[in-house]
Amino acid sequence: MLAFADRPMTEADIPAVLEMERQACPHPAHAWSEDNYRSSLRSGYWTRVRTQPDTGRIVGVCVAMDGVEEMHLLNIAVDKALHGSGLARGLLDTLYVFCRQTDVPLLWLEVRPSNERALGVYRRQGFVEVGVRKGYYPAPGGREDALVMRLDLTKKAAQP
Length: 160
Fold this sequence. Notes:
The structure is a single chain. The protein is of the alpha+beta class. It has a single domain (5-152), classed as Aminopeptidase (3-Layer(aba) Sandwich). It is built from four helices and seven strands. It has helices at residues 14-24, 34-42, 87-101, 116-125, and strands at residues 5-7, 46-51, 58-67, 70-78, 106-111, 128-139, 142-152. The protein has a seven-stranded mixed beta sheet with strand order 1-2-3-4-5-7-6, with helices on both faces. A hairpin with a 6-residue loop joins strand 2 (46-51) and strand 3. 26% of the residues are buried.
């Protein structure tokens, strides 16, 4: 896998994150808004941007909200040109490390059933489907359900 740098996201990163995510999402309704990112930063959520070390260009973003003995992955997006490169797995690994350092045993997320690439990543990482949120996501021509998935980090082996 290529070498990238991670750091917390800042408000100054939002325009580049929005552009990267809009290019990566198949439909504009799938992308997060500027307000979503600003609110996450104001709320103190765990955020990371992944950048190319030589250019500083943002190629990935991950946002998660902590709760009582759990973390909720709110958003993860990767530059379209880097889909399939392991970048999302790398961002998830960074989140797992944070969860372990803060004694968080469970990680939750919602994912569109139509997002087969993400579903594959989550299943390979050990996430299990535990429910469905009906009409959760905006979609072209209406709404799309969300699969609710959970990962028990006490059962997932730590990566070296």
